[in-house]
Amino acid sequence: MKYLKHSLWLLMSIILTTSYAQSTSKLASIDTTAIFYKKNKLLPGQIKPWEDGMRTTGKAGTYEWWYFDSNLKDGSTLVIVFYTKSQFNLKGGLAPRVTFELTKPDGKVIKRSATADQNSFFASTDSCYVKVGSNIFKGNLNEYEIHLDMEGLKADISLTGNISSWRPGSGFMNFKKDKSTSFFAWLPAVPHGEVKGNINIDGTDNLISGVGYHDHNWGNSPMNKLIHHWYWGRARVGEYALIASYIVSEKTYDYDAQPILLLVKNGKVILDDFQKVKFSAEDVYIDSNTLKPVAGKLVYEYNDDNKHYKITFNRKRDIVNRRFLSGLKGLKRSLAKLSGFDGAYMRFTGEVTIEKFENNKVTETTTEKSGVWETMYFGKALKEEVTGR
């Protein structure tokens, strides 16, 4: 009975959070004001190479990372991230690290990581050139190279974009409370591209090829203080490529939510929206490991009478299922539990379908059977989050 009540609380939280996203509250939203663009030296719809350079000082109160992922032709998925520090603990200065995670088609996961001291870290402010010890991530908004050299792993990987760099509005999601403003920034420098390279694991070479993605994130407040959870996914579906996300702010910001959708066909932008797109979560279940409410089906729909598209993510299986507390021990685990932190990360694979409508009738349907998307939770869906409304 206790578990049943807990499950119902979580389900209600998802339902209320989704419906609340359609409200007019603006405590958390993407900034598109002319003043903000000018202050940050940005141009609407135009991306410059320096935007993928280091955007923070690396000092206390900031975090930043450069992210790469790929769907490989053999069915594997690869994720590489260069961090300035943990996005949850911003008290200290630089604590650079690099993570590598290769998930094979059979579910086997190969992980490696490397850290470096502050003197072994460098990041250009002119373009993407990040160095953590012997590991390098560099590029110019179109062509990127990643070099890894850590224990048991050497790799050289290239990513060549076939879709122009993009950001939703300014790329800054601002969280406003009283007189203070925190932010979470996002730049998809390569929304979609071709991947080639070689990965040497424990002395064995593995030639790779596939499709990939690179984005860049930074902020000035711990993510778990701003964001309750998100869904994020990208896919290549026939002639289409897309990025879709749904970010729900924390209780402090009234659970304001931000749906975002980019849809491209044959290199031409069809949809670029974060104001009219509607999001819904269906087939919600309680994951047995993380105890989080998770949607088996995600739907993003855009309809402005001129254009009507519906994108559906239909989960088939999990490829990552991680409860962050399970990786903590002793005092760190106790402190995390006392603070209420119980984050989780899940990555899924399944079908991604794009439907085009004309006069409310489906005129085109395209499906990709091996799409990949994720959900990230930064805390619990608590009883008071529901009953306090």
Describe this entry's structure for a reader.
The protein has 2 domains: 1-27 and 224-389, AttH-like domain (AttH-like fold, Beta Barrel), CATH 2.40.370; 31-221, AttH-like domain (AttH-like fold), CATH 2.40.370.10. The chain starts with a helix and ends with a helix. Helix content is 11%, strand content 54%. The protein has 5 helices and 22 strands.
Break the fold down into its secondary structure elements and pairings.
Layout: H1 2-20, E1 28-30, H2 34-39, E2 63-72, E3 77-83, E4 97-103, E5 109-115, E6 121-123, E7 128-132, E8 135-139, E9 143-150, E10 153-161, E11 172-177, E12 180-201, E13 204-219, H3 223-226, E14 227-237, E15 240-249, E16 257-265, E17 268-273, E18 278-286, E19 293-303, E20 308-323, H4 330-338, E21 344-358, E22 361-377, H5 383-387
Antiparallel strand pairs: 1-11, 2-3, 2-13, 3-4, 4-5, 6-7, 7-8, 8-9, 9-10, 10-12, 11-12, 12-13, 14-15, 14-22, 15-16, 16-17, 18-19, 19-20, 20-21, 21-22
Give me some keywords for this one.
AttH-like fold; nine-stranded antiparallel β-sheet; disordered C terminus; 5 helices; disordered N terminus; 2 domains; 13-stranded antiparallel β-sheet; 389 residues; mainly beta; 54% strand; single chain; globular
Low-confidence stretches: 1-24, 382-389
Helix and strand composition category: mainly beta
The secondary-structure element order is: HEHEEEEEEEEEEEEHEEEEEEEHEEH
CATH class of the largest domain: Mainly Beta
The CATH topology of the largest domain is AttH-like fold
Strand content: over 45%
Describe the main β-sheet briefly.
13 strands, antiparallel
Number of strand segments: 22
Number of helices: 5
CATH superfamily of the largest domain: AttH-like domain
Radius of gyration: 20 Å
Distance between the termini: 24 Å
CATH architecture of the largest domain: Beta Barrel
What integer is the average pLDDT? 88
Total tally of structural domains: 2
As an assembly, this protein is single chain
Which percent range fits the helix content?
10-25%
